[in-house]
Design a protein that fits this description.
The chain is of the alpha+beta class. Helices cover about 40% and strands about 35% of the residues. The chain is built from 2 helices and 4 strands. The longest helix has 26 residues, at about 80-104. The two termini are about 20 Å apart.
Length: about 100
C-alpha cells in the first residue's frame, strides 16, 4: 500500500528534486511496515540565529496504526536535514516493526 504524503514548504520555494527524494525515502520506509497510513513532511527555516547562520528544519510526522511518530532535524543544508531526519525515522520504524514482531 502506498502511503499518502503531504509535503509542506514554509518560507522556502518548492523543489521537484526534493519532492522526488522525499517520496523515494517514504517508499523505503513503507518497506519496513505495512501499517504506514499517512505521512507529512514539513520543510521550513526557523528563526535566524546570528551564531549558527541560516538553519533549515525537516519535520516528519508518520501516522503508523497505533503509533504516531514525529521526527525533527535541523541543519545548514535542507538536503542534509532531510537525509538525517529520514535516517532517524528509518531507525524508529525498524525498532517499532521489530517490537511488533516480537509481541506476536
Amino acid at each position: 500500500m502506498k502511503p499518502a504524503v503531504d509535503v509542506v514548504y514554509r518560507d522556502l520555494d518548492s523543489s521537484a528534486a526534493l519532492n522526488d527524494i522525499i517520496i523515494k525515502k517514504l517508499e523505503k520506509l513503507s518497506r519496513y511496515t505495512d501499517q504506514l497510513v499517512h505521512s507529512r513532511v514539513v520543510l521550513d527555516t526557523p528563526h535566524h540565529h546570528k551564531h549558527k547562520g541560516k538553519q533549515f528544519r525537516a519535520s516528519i510526522e508518520l501516522d503508523i496504526v497505533g503509533h504516531p511518530l514525529s521526527i525533527t532535524q535541523d541543519d545548514e543544508s535542507i538536503h542534509v536535514a532531510v537525509r538525517d531526519a529520514f535516517s532517524s525515522a528509518e531507525r524508529k520504524v525498524k525498532q517499532l516493526a521489530a517490537r511488533q514482531r516480537n509481541t506476536r
